[in-house]
Design a protein that fits this description.
single chain; 62 residues; 3 helices; elongated
């Protein structure tokens, strides 16, 4: 009986997920973009830890 319920729920879950992806596309894209920014920031921080310090004037010259 439990197996039958799971099999009945699979198409409903797939349809609900599909609708979520379509209706909330902008929200999901924003979420993905923010996650990518976080990964890039973490990578930049890790790379910057081992580099030498640069003065403010040098940065503004670039």
């Amino acid at each position: 009986m439990l197996n039958l319920q799971v099999e009945e729920l699979k198409p409903l879950l797939k349809e609900a997920l599909h609708e979520l992806l379509i209706q909330e596309r902008i929200w999901l894209l924003d979420l993905f973009y923010e996650a990518m920014e976080e990964v890039a920031m973490a990578k930049a921080i890790a790379e910057g830890k081992d580099s030498e310090n640069v003065g403010r004037d040098e940065i503004f010259e670039l």
